[in-house]
């Protein structure tokens, strides 16, 4: 079930909210939790019910491992024994992810490099497996280190499967979520939280329906439907995808945060105007923040610890490895690996730059960062390496540069530089003016306007805000017919 | 009442007001906001169409051209898309003749997929079922093709009907996607590369008309004969690599036979100009500059329906070189 579908907005959400708050109003707290859990599992199994046993078994297994670790801690079991149990738990999660997500990639590469002919398994990637596996790994690590103690299965299952964050994050931390589910004050309907939730949900829905889906057309057209791209087409394609990804994913996150607020649960923000970043370090502090936090806490820090005495070069090596893992987590493909490594290298270079206390003018720094992000997303988006090359070749002028034929008169001298004039100068778009207007508007929005979290903080309940929330809701609602899935569902 | 509760109330009231206003607008306005098939069908029944001498029917390949260039005062453009199949085109024709006995020519622009369309795509819900629902139309299609489309007894149709009754005001642009049905060719196209789609078309067996197409093409021919009007079938541009395969397909043979049997005219846009594979956005629809060429080709070789010919750039004019096929 998609957040941006009639069935979710008109049936599922009202029924879940009503049932949850009614049960809690009659002080049926446990029943309320069970109801919310059942609703979340129903939400998950709407796509494919065969995914449900996998989610349930993962929850159950991790819970059992956590219980054994807690008991072991209470009864002072030998450290080596506890460590073995912990490693089994981590191996289970990594194997689950590895099997469903990476098995075919692994077999394909073995076949290619060693000339074998193993059959691919053609496994369908279970929805949300990347997200719920990460959350549970974090949980096991914290239980092992004695930082948390979860007692009840129902609470744990609810933390993993709470529907607003289940499918594509934000990656929530149990220490943040569990106390909120336990707080009695959160069991009652609260006007303020609901209003803020509705506001945030409306903004997210509008971002997805009105903005991201508009860019989806040009991005898909350029990446998938056009054999070669000229210079302008290639830039339009790459920028369209860069904006599509941001508005799509941040729209989804806003909807998740908004839905959480409706249930009085504060889900962390995932974005803080990332395209305003003037360095790649800054970018990763603003883009997919919960993933960055996870990678820092559970991958980078342990790696640095493993390397012994911390030195600058060792921390850079750990950083590169962590970004490699981050890239590989996004998808089973070499393009994702290269994307992760590129960002790892850029981060290393940025740290080196900072260590040398070198500085760039802010505008130039922003331009470099934004273009690096934009170019790296070409590799991220491409299904195969030739697709990425096709767009990159166009962007760097290896294909021809074509300008609109109406500019022939004033710019005729450019012909001598190999620039062609033609009606096919922007074949990826049906309406060139609209395309450029959208790109300019999107750039303005990401650079100048406040992000959703800032808007929420400044929120004042008045007629004006009510009017534009209504407009966004009604517009989005009328355009839900052309539903497209969220990009991060694939990861 | 606290500020936040009041704010929620504002949103609720404003949403109802705005939704209600749109609903009223839909009810009162002769041009519904839903989609172009609905728009054209409604206009057909609500305006005077007696002045038209010719009628253009077709799928979205032709509509992309006609919507942009067609301005001829004596020619009515009722092009829709393949999701309404030939049944939808027949009903449009039928509605047209209900108010017009002066038409002399009907042109049906078709792609092979229009001849094999069977009204079971996702989009058939919104483009066909929501538009062609007059009692006589429903009766006709149910009596002839009960198993070829969503009928009132289908579980999917019941779900749709219940959903619409409960929640979906009629101005909503499309149907909910939770209804399970076959994806349209266009939907498939969006997920694949153009070359792959063309390859798929080559390997697809175009063996016969779909039952719906066979029935309603015959009905269209009969209806035109009754109204003393000529029916011309025009094969739309096909990708260069696919075209020879289609010419050799059994469907083409059947089409030829059908045209002979019913004394119709058949024209082929591909005999006037070769449409390269790169001319297509998705293996079906033409890119913008190729639409200009198709429009010019129609004007010069088939029917002069664009009184002021589309004016391509000088660059395009030099590119326009009609090529006859051997």
Characterization of the model:
The complex is a heterodimer of chains A (491) and B (326). Chain A has 2 domains: 6-190, no CATH class; 194-490, no CATH class. Chain A is built from 19 helices and 2 strands. Chain A has helices spanning 6-25, 29-45, 52-74, 79-114, 129-144, 153-161, 163-166, 174-182, 191-224, 231-262, 280-286, 289-306, 312-330, 334-355, 362-381, 385-395, 432-447, 452-457, 463-478, and strands spanning 402-404, 420-422. A two-stranded parallel sheet of chain A has the order 1-2. In chain A, helix 13 packs antiparallel against helix 14. Chain B is of the alpha/beta class. Chain B has helices at 3-28, 36-46, 60-69, 85-98, 112-116, 122-129, 135-144, 155-166, 185-190, 194-203, 211-226, 243-247, 250-261, 288-302, 314-319, and strands at 54-58, 75-77, 105-110, 230-235, 265-268. Classes of the chains: A mainly alpha (491), B alpha/beta (326). The A-B interface holds A 5-7, 10-11, 191-192, 194-195, 198, 220-221, 224-227, 405-406, 408, 421-424, 427, 430, 461-463, 465-467, 469-471, 473-474, 478-483 and B 2-8, 10-11, 14-15, 18-19, 22, 126, 163, 166-168, 171-178, 190-195, 278, 281-282, 287-289, 292, 312-316.
Total E-strand runs of chain A: 2
Largest sheet of chain A: 2 strands, parallel
Helix percentage of chain A: 55-70%
CATH class of chain B equals Alpha Beta
Secondary structure class of chain B reads: alpha/beta
Please list the strands of the largest sheet of chain A in the order they lie side by side.
1-2
**Shape estimate of chain B:** globular
**Domain count of chain B:** 1
Element order, helices and strands of chain B? Answer: HHEHEHEHHHHHHHEHHEHH
- Can you tell me the CATH topology of chain B? Rossmann fold
Helix-strand string of chain A: HHHHHHHHHHHHHHHHEEHHH
* Most residues in contact: chain pair: A-B, 42 and 45 residues
Number of helices of chain B: 15
Q: What's the rounded overall pLDDT mean of chain A?
A: 85
Rg of chain A computed from alpha carbons, rounded to a whole number of angstroms: 24 Å
CATH architecture of chain B: 3-Layer(aba) Sandwich
Biggest sheet character of chain B: 5 strands, parallel
Strand tally of chain B, please? 5
Q: Based on the structure, what is the oligomeric state of the protein chains?
A: heterodimer
Going across the biggest sheet of chain B, name each strand in turn: 2-1-3-4-5
């Amino acid at each position: 079930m998609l957040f941006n579908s009639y069935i979710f907005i008109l049936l599922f959400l009202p029924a879940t909210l009503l049932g949850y708050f009614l049960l809690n109003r009659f002080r049926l707290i446990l029943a309320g939790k069970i109801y919310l859990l059942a609703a979340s599992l129903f939400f998950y199994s709407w796509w494919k019910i065969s995914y449900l046993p996998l989610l349930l078994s993962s929850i159950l297994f991790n819970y059992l491992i956590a219980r054994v670790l807690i008991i072991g801690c209470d009864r002072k079991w030998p450290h080596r024994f506890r460590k073995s149990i912990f490693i089994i738990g981590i191996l289970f999660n990594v194997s689950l992810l590895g099997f469903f997500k990476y098995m075919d990639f692994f077999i394909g590469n073995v076949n290619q490099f060693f000339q074998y002919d193993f059959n691919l398994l053609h496994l369908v990637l279970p929805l949300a497996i990347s997200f719920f596996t990460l959350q549970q790994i974090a949980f096991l690590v914290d239980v092992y280190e004695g930082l948390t103690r979860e007692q009840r299965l129902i609470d744990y299952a609810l933390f993993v499967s709470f529907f607003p964050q289940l499918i594509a994050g934000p990656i929530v931390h149990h220490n943040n979520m569990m106390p909120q589910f336990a707080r009695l004050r959160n069991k009652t309907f609260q006007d303020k939280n609901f209003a803020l939730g509705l506001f945030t949900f409306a903004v997210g829905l509008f971002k997805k329906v009105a903005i991201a889906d508009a860019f989806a057309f040009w991005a898909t057209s350029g990446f998938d439907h056009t054999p070669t791209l000229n210079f302008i087409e290639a830039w339009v394609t790459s920028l369209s995808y860069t904006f599509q990804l941001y508005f799509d994913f941040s729209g989804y996150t806003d909807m998740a945060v908004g839905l959480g607020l409706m249930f009085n649960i504060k889900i962390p923000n995932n974005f803080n105007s990332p395209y305003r970043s003037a360095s790649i370090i800054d970018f990763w502090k603003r883009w997919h923040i919960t993933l960055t936090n996870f990678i820092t806490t559970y991958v980078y820090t342990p790696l640095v610890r493993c390397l012994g005495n911390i030195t600058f070069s060792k921390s850079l090596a750990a950083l590169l490895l962590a970004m490699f893992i981050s890239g590989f987590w996004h998808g089973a493909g070499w393009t994702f690996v290269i994307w992760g490594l590129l960002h790892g290298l850029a981060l290393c270079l940025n740290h080196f730059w900072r260590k040398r206390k070198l500085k760039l003018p802010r505008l130039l720094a922003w331009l470099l960062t934004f273009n690096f992000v934009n170019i790296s997303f070409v590799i991220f988006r491409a299904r195969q390496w030739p697709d990425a090359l096709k767009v990159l070749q166009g962007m760097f002028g290896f294909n021809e540069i074509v300008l609109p034929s109406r500019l022939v008169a004033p710019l005729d001298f450019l012909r001598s530089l190999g620039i062609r004039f033609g009606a096919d100068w922007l074949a990826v778009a049906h309406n060139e003016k609209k395309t450029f207007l959208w790109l300019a508007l999107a750039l303005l929005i990401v650079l100048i306007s406040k992000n959703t979290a800032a808007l929420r903080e400044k929120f004042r309940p008045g007629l004006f805000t009510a009017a534009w929330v209504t407009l966004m809701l009604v517009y989005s609602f009328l355009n839900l017919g052309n539903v497209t899935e969220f990009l991060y569902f694939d990861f | 009442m606290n500020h936040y509760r009041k704010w929620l109330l504002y949103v609720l009231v404003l949403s109802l007001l705005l939704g209600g206003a749109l609903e009223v607008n839909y009810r009162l306005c002769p041009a519904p906001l839903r989609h172009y098939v609905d728009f054209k069908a409604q206009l057909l029944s609500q305006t005077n169409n007696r002045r038209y001498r010719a009628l253009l029917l077709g799928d979205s390949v032709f509509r992309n051209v006609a919507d942009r260039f067609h301005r001829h005062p004596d020619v009515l453009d009722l092009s829709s898309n393949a999701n309404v199949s030939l049944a939808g085109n027949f009903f449009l024709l039928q509605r047209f003749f209900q108010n017009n006995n002066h038409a002399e020519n009907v042109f049906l622009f078709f792609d092979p997929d229009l001849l094999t369309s069977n009204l079971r795509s996702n989009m058939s819900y919104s483009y066909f079922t929501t538009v062609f629902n007059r009692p006589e139309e429903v009766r006709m299609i149910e009596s002839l093709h009960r198993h070829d489309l969503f009928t009132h007894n289908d579980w999917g149709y019941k779900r749709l009907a219940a959903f619409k009754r409960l929640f979906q005001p009629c101005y909503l642009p499309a149907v909910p996607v939770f209804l399970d049905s076959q994806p349209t060719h266009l939907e498939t196209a969006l997920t694949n590369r153009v070359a792959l789609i063309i390859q798929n078309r080559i390997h697809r067996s175009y063996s016969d008309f779909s039952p719906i197409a066979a029935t309603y093409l015959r009905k269209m021919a009969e209806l035109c004969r009754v109204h003393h009007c000529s029916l011309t079938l025009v094969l739309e541009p096909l990708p260069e690599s696919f075209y020879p395969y289609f010419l050799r397909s059994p469907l083409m043979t059947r089409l030829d036979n059908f045209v002979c049997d019913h004394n119709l005219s058949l024209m082929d846009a591909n005999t006037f100009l070769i449409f390269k594979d790169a001319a297509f956005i998705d293996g079906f629809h033409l890119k913008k500059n190729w639409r200009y060429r198709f429009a010019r080709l129609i004007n010069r070789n088939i029917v002069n329906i664009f009184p002021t010919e589309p004016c391509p750039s000088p660059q395009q004019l030099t590119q326009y070189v009609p090529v006859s096929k051997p």
